What does this fold into?
Amino acid sequence: MSVVQKAVALAPDAWVPGGHPDPLIHHRSGLIGAPVPRIDAPQKVAGQARFAAEVPLDGMLYAALVYSTIAKGRLASLDTSAAAAAPGVALVMTHRNAPRLQPLPTFTSNMRSAAQDSIPVLQDDRIHWNGQPVALVLAETQEQADYAKSMLHPVYEPEHAVTRFAEAKAAGLETGAMMGMQFKDEINDAEKVLATSPVKVDEVYSTPRHNHNALELHAVTVIWEDDNLTVHDATQKLAHTAWSLAHAFGLDEKQVRVLSPYVGGGFGGKGLWQHHLLAAAAARLAGRPVRLVLTREGVYRIVGGRTLTEQRVAIGARPDGKFEALIHIGKVAMTPHNNMPEPLIMGTRGRYAARALRLEVQAARVDMMANTFMRAPGEAVGTFALESAVDELAARLDMDPIELRLRNEPDKEPTSGLPFSLREVEKIFRDGAERFGWSRRNQTPGQRREGEWLIGTGVASGTYPHNRMPGGAARLTVTRDGHATVEFAGQEMGMGTATVHAQVTAERLGLPMTRVAAKYGDSLLPGRVMAVGSAQTTSFGAAIAATHKKLVKELTSLAGNDSPLAGLSPDEVGGLNAGLAKLDDPTRHESYASILSRAGRMELTVEAEAPPPLETMHWSMHSHSAMFCEVKVNAVTGEIRVSRILGSFACGRILNARTASSQFRGAIIMGIGLALMEETQFDERNGRIMNASLSEYHVPVHMDVPEIEVMWTDTPDPHAPMGAHGVGEIGITGTAAAIANAVFNATGKRIRDLPITLDKLL
Ligand code: MOS
It folds into this structure.
């Protein structure tokens, strides 16, 4: 722990943001939590929402990329003459003519960066991974660019590349660390305590590489006007992308504008990759606007995915189920040009009480594309291992797996000693068990059979931290005709950001939703918050709260002595019926229209920043889930069908029942993919991804997904803005383990290697 962390941990509650609960927690107008439909839905269904690959620009050129087929070495030669002479071609760019760029820090080492790897390519003849771009073609049409690209035949001089995980591990492992945080915890001598524990499990669980498959392909449409660069992007990192491009091209940050009003899914994959740099570089060389849309294969070649993992989980317990020792050590892959040690122990840190703990992430370096964030990085695969092991222990103890979990609930966060801001693990298990009908379960595996189908049920817990990002800021405007606009540099990837912030703004102001507009998706708007870590809502939510507070202060001062509000301090008033009212006496009310017209103002605009997110160093703040699942396994073919799934969640206050349900369901579906399908086929001999398409990389389709039930406690976290936790990633955590545990209950077979495919069951 750093000095700052220690000081914040010990500070009085009232000194820390969240020490005074957000007044919004107590508002009950009916708007917060309501299933408000997405405000961006009408444009989308009418085909009016313009995505990054659809922005029309005069004189635009289309780009195609050539990807390396070796993992390491140099580009020995590349004859570009035929391609350059092909119809419609405006430019062939290689390392010989590409503009020089500044190398970028990755986002895991610099808070302002959006870069997910640190190498600008086409700067020299070096090849760093199989799939790295080595040339770019610009032409008048996409077809002409693709055709000309087919005329490029690079000749490589390969060198030895470390592409086998075994070789990488043998070369040495380093303890994972990110932003100064070491992924290593030790309390007492866990190995020694394990050795003397009366009951134990000690197993290795593995998960394969995964690739990103957002529905919308990565795309940029870029235009230079003098030294000003505008990028129409599909990103979850607006302001950070602007900073990164400015850094790479040696510009002032204000010279770069990134626009991204609509994004078709991000999941951690929509940051800054090589295509941003290449498109902007090519547009500069050609002196014309450029569109670069990655093909689906292109996404596999240059957008990183999730690392493979090998995780040892060992639990030593007493006969009554109380944990004595808990060990969770995971090995992961990283590249020389990024720093993303999949933090798979994060969920374990705050999950169970044990006398001795040993947790660690160990990274090996391989020559491949940079791995990156992918929905619930760490927890998604970490909880698979941990929660499978807990189920194995329950079976060994012949104990109900829910009771075993509840018996090991900690009363404070085991690794940090911080108090929990809100902990409802027992409640979500009990409520979920009742809804699911858990008591009807047969604890002995392989007992339920209907025809060819073996049926089993399983449970697991999921956890995800409540994060809040620094850099939150917002702008609020109220007008004399009683309308309001909230502006923030937020990223709407389809999850409901715009809607929820419009809802919260309307609630704070006492206006109906129809009178509140939200502006977002533009790096020139206030705030520097990326949509990651399930933290966007709370990060901009805290900024909107601060902005609203400032607005109320200015309005009460504008109201002056001739107002029913005269003499009241800003803390005594709140938004009500299109104006301000005394909190405990709503008859003392004046409308925004009246205040502004008396002051001779048409409108009032204020801007403010959120306080730094110190609360997450003062309390242990987490979302939790209890995942219940029923599977059917065909005794003849081994086919696995998830037949029922229920997620019981504790995520603080839910702001919008409709968008939150969709987030939970979407993440659970991704969890089904993690458990049963997703697997990057990586050829360890040459570092090539072999299944770079949706026909060979399987994700769940509708037929694979049963009706998903979700439920939640809706208890506000008194220390979180709006009382709310993020809901984007919690749903994937725990899901894979619940499915694996149900497969065990159905068949008696314990599969410790994802995905659980039928061959592993036969
Ligand atoms: Mo999320 S993997 O932090 O977009």
In short: The pocket of dioxothiomolybdenum(VI) ion is lined by residues 236, 266-268, 373-375, 377, 532-533 (CB under 6 Å). The first helix runs from residue 3 to 10.
